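On clarity, I found the account of how folds are encoded harder to follow than it need be. What matters is that the chain and its backbone geometry are given together, residue for residue. For the editor and my fellow referees, an illustration may be useful. For illustration, here is how one protein appears when written out as sequence plus structure tokens:

___
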Amino acid sequence: MKDDSLLAHAGRHPFKNKGVVNPPVYHASTILFPTLDSFHGRDPKVKVTYGRKGTPTSHALEDAVCALEGGAGTVTASSGLGAVTTAIQACTKAGDHVLITDSVYAPTRLYMDKMLARFGVTVEYYEPTIGADIEKYIKPETAMIFMEAPGSWTFEMQDVPAIVSVAKKHEILTIIDNTWSAGYFFKPLSLGVDISVQAATKYIVGHSDAMMGVITCNEATLPRVREAAWLLGMCAGPDDLYLAQRGLRSMGTRLRQHHENGVKLANWLKNRPEVTRVMHPALPDDPGHEIWKRDFTGACGLFGFVMNEVPEKALAAMLEGLHFFGMGYSWGGFESLLIPVNPNSVRTAAKWDGEGQTMRMHVGLEDVEDLILDLEAGFERLKQAL
């Protein structure tokens, strides 16, 4: 089944639900058992035992995402960060050493430094484009390598197959944050990655109105991730699960438009005198383009660029007057966003070499010509404020 057909049908069983097209929303904590055998877990037909351990609502989304990512099973979490931290805790113990890409999502880094290290795990960051040379950082106690492709804020591509090859040689688990591709444009488990996590808050939900995380595992890691989620009390709310299912059905169509709009705006920005650099792996002159072309089938609407250094009052004049581009965290919704970022505030293995003001842009589903006119007016305000 092709991905677009899968998105429309996976996880749905209308005739098990009186013909209803969309899986119903189950609000549940207590689940009643019809027999003592089922209460004691001796009836294999009983799949729902407690609200936090899953309901038909969560199972429907998990089955659909699992089919999309090509895993053995998917576990839902209350947020993207919840998915990341649950997966990491499932794969680590006191005394372990872990390797994390230096371009990782900033809250993931904070969790590593402030929480995981507290429990006796040694955290070390590596340069994102290291590829097979990551082997020089491997220690006898290395238990896990965490990747993100492309990287947050700076959009470096990682050579996932090369890193996975080294990891397998040393029997090390690999996890990747696959939010940028939404599991649609990139299939890391098919390349040997053990666990793929997503902030489903982004493109799976797609409408900026629900928090959600998903963890898709291979057969070997699924039991430990399920156990970690249960022991950590991790679960997602039924209404958010429903919104994620609803968003998933149109995700392929939305992502193709995000790709088209994003590439158009990235190319337009390259020709602006205010812009010194655009970071978008789908552009042929991007340093990570060949890896992106080899491993990915498309790009989402999120990328970065660097402007000439400007005073904050000029940047404020530009951003505060924009009509279509909002200033806000998160991304992946139908609306466009533009924020300033400082990668060096969250880098330790390799200094970010962007000379000027780094920006992160999410290109939504608006008409590109409207977005260009909005940015043109913004750049004019910036110039007038200098």
Notes: Residues 3-249 form a domain with the Aspartate Aminotransferase; domain 2 fold (CATH 3.40.640.10). The first strand starts at residue 73 and ends at 77. Residues 204 and 251 are 6 Å apart (CA to CA). Residues 251-270 form the longest helix (20 residues).
